Amino acid sequence: MIQSMTGYGKAIATLPDKKITIEIKSLNSKSLDLSTRIAPAYREKEIEIRKILSKQVSRGKVDFNLWIDKEDLSDAAVTINEALIEGYYKQISTISQNLNIPVPNDWFQTLLKMPDVLTKPEIQEVSEEEWQIVLKTIEEAIEHLNTFRNQEGAALEKKFVHNIDTIESLLATIDPYEKERVEKIRERITDSLENALDVEYDNNRLEQELIFYIEKLDVNEEKQRLKNHLTYFVTTLNSKAGQGKKLGFIAQEIGREINTLGSKSNHAEMQRIVVQMKDELEQIKEQVLNVL
């Protein structure tokens, strides 16, 4: 069963003093393109998080987000050092009086800009127990991501099978026009010799030339190879996940055979059928880029 590279997974861990949210989004990419946004408290765990994602996600443009919502925001707020502000205020007032320099118009803004007045709370070290909870939440988010990818993959597989079946049906409709084409070629050459050129010709030699000409336009080999490629595509769909690149290669081979059919067809109705095949194949090529 195939997987889509498009997916979304989210998981939440609720702790006594905070809520940890993990969110993973993925889109199609030729390889694993991983970007992370991690809350400062868990920044030191980034390498470990990347290893987990690389092992379980494998391909796609992946955005990983980990953020914290604290229950008590008072601890997270920037701290104003009141004692330091008082010290700065007294010093500036004294200097103003001694040197006869005007005091600031906005004392508060001036004092807040002084060094070390505003301090951020220190990042608390993450305990092993809390980290194990976070790891479990990451695994849960990855599981949701892969479930989403499986669902999208099932929808893609259904579409691919429809496209392949349509190409096979169109291929079967070529047969009657192929026989008709041979007769028309024979009639056109004979009429040209008898009416337009008005010359005598050797019937045996004409038959030989016709056989040679018709063999050059024969499409039986292309039809058989195309059937084989179509069967191989469906077989690959039913194999293990991670076959996106392989399906892309098979689609290229299908395209080559369809193009050769078009160049050899020499018949308006056959060419119309070939155009319809190309339309179905184009839909496959467009969507196969999303396959893991």
Automatic annotation (TrEMBL):
Domain Endoribonuclease YicC-like N-terminal intervals: 2-157
Residue ranges crossing the lipid bilayer per the database entry: none
Leader sequence residues: none
Superkingdom of origin: Bacteria
GO molecular function: hydrolase activity; RNA endonuclease activity
Alphabetized UniProt keyword annotations: Endonuclease, Hydrolase, Nuclease
Residue span, Endoribonuclease YicC-like C-terminal domain: 177-291
InterPro entries: YicC-like_C, YicC-like_N, YicC/YloC-like
Cofactor(s) this protein cannot do without: a divalent metal cation
NCBIfam families named in the record: YicC/YloC family endoribonuclease
Family, as annotated: Belongs to the YicC/YloC family.
Protein name, entry field: YicC-like domain-containing protein
Organism expressing this protein natively: Bacteroides coprosuis DSM 18011
